[in-house]
Amino acid sequence: MPPEELRGWLKLIRCPGLGAAQLIGLVKQCGSASAASSASRSVWSAAGIARTVRDALDSLDTHQHESDAAWCEEPRRGLIPWNDARYPQRLREIASCPPALFYRGDPDLLLLPQIAVVGSRNATPQGLETAEGFAAELARRGLTITSGLALGVDGAAHRGALSVEGNTIAVCATGLDRVYPSRHKTLASEIDRRGLLISEFAPGTAPRPENFPRRNRLISGLALGVLVVEAASESGSLITARLAAEQGREVFAIPGSIHNVMARGCHRLIRQGAKLVETVDDILEEIGGQVGSWLRSIPVADEESKRAEGHRHQRILDALGDQPCAIDALVEALGLGVDQLSAALIELELEGRVAPAAGGRVMRLKGPAAPVADGGSKR
């Protein structure tokens, strides 16, 4: 993007009182953001924009959008305006689409098929493990995992995708020169390096309560569907699910115990028509028609790798026996790395063969084991 065009967009984005629809309409009318930002008051008036808004444009601090431009010109930073080919078409179609997106990382990820994974900031340990496991498997199948960088389920979803070298997008409710929550600075840096962070808010924007619902509409708008892992009865995740339904996206929910308050939001969604999800395949059944060719392009493990995985799973199940077992004891007994063991336990839990137990232990569930020859997997 030419420097004068970038500065035109940044100036318009910073203009107080200029709504997204007005901004986009003005750029269309003038042919470019640079022309729109320098157009006369009569042109703005003809576009239905109040004189006071045009006056506000003239009173902007020029140092501010020069600072914005300097930020955008750094490596792996930038701005994607509404009329840029990299701006995702799915987002263009939603109500009140943002006129531009600031980004950190790889903007090409915006054009890939995405699934949003959201849930409670105060998720249970099992909810966090479920979110990470589902995100990892969906990413392994070739889908990009989109979430909001919040504590709890959001962070687990991002980590799940990264754990299998998959793609993840964090949609932020602040300017991208800061990280909220601050506890996710390391995670945000990893997403910056290996994925993508985006925001409709200019650098310097602080976390304000009204920004989070706005952020949520982008999470759902970018995705083919939204998976809710855990949510209380009053939850921001339910807002994201409602927005997804309004935008014509699929809504998925994972059920939980009737005694778990974090499952009540998911149960409400299921009663309202969301698809009950027990495995990743439940999601792929719904969206396969939209991304089938993409998913088929993801290489599957060869037979030797599948057999090795099956034997590893069976060793874990044999080591568990009939009593709950501590993770440290399994690591010592099997000689596996913690990361390798954790990944295998997540897969086994998704298959319904193990479950978390009290005291951070894990237990084997009763039921027929899958044959080792086929890798012990439903994939």
From TrEMBL:
Domain Smf/DprA SLOG residues, every copy: 80-287
InterPro entries: DprA (IPR003488), DprA_WH (IPR041614), DrpA_SLOG (IPR057666), WH-like_DNA-bd_sf (IPR036388)
Domain (DprA winged helix): residue spans on this chain: 310-360
Organism superkingdom: Bacteria
GO biological process, one term: DNA-mediated transformation
Pfam families hit by this protein: DNA_processg_A (PF02481), WHD_DprA (PF17782)
Similarity comment text for this entry: Belongs to the DprA/Smf family.
Protein name in UniProt: DNA protecting protein DprA
Organism from which the protein derives: Panacagrimonas perspica
